Amino acid sequence: MRAIVISVLATALAGCAAKGPSAELQLSNECYQSTVDERVARFTDNFTTDDLNDLTSALKRHYLKVSHAMLLKQRANDISDPLGGIPASFELETAQESVIGSLKPIYMILNRSSVPQFVSTQVQQQMKDGLAICYGES
Tell me: the pLDDT tens digits for 107-118? Predict the structure, then answer.
C-alpha cells in the first residue's frame, strides 16, 4: 500500500514539474519576439553584418531567458498546482536576474559606434514597450 501511495505521489509531482507554458504565455512570448524582431528588421540596413548577427544571437538568448522566467512566474502563481509553484517561486528570482543579465550584451551591441543612436534608441524602446504590451510588465 505504501509503495502505491509513493508511486502516485511521484507521478503527480513529476506531472507538476513537467507543466509547460499556457496558451496565453505562448502567445505573449510570440508577441514579444515578433514585436522586437519587427523593429530590428525595420532598421536592418542600418546595421553592419557583424552587428546584426551579434544582435540576432543576443536577442535569441534573451528571448529564451524571458520565456523561461515567465514560465516560472506562471508556475509560481498557479494556484491549481501549489506543489509545482513552490520550487518555481524559488527559481524565479534567479531567472529574473538572468533576464536582466541577458540585456547587457544587447545594450553593448546597440551602443557600438557603428550603430546609429536613433536605431539603438528605437530598438531599446521597443524592447521595453514589448514587455509592457505583451506581458503586461515593465
Answer: 999 999 999 999
Give the span between the Cα atoms of 54 and 52, in whole angstroms.
5
CA distances to 52, 66, 76, 107, 112 from 40, rounded to whole Å, are 9, 18, 32, 13, 15
- Total count of domains within the chain: 1
**What residue ranges in 54-131 does DSSP mark as E strands?**
none
CB 75 within 8 A of CB 18: no
- What's the pTM? 0.80
> Rounded distance, CA 32 to CA 135, Å?
8
Q: Cα–Cα distance between 53 and 32 in angstroms, integer?
A: 19
Tell me the per-residue pLDDT of 3-58, one tens digit each, with 9 for 90 and over. 554 544 444 444 445 578 899 999 999 999 999 999 999 999 999 999 999 999 99
CA–CA separation, 44 and 47 (whole Å):
6
Question: 81 with 16: CB under 8 angstroms?
Answer: yes
Which phi and psi (to 5°) does residue 93 adopt?
A: -60, -40
DSSP type of residue 137: -
What is the domain extent for residue 23? 2-135
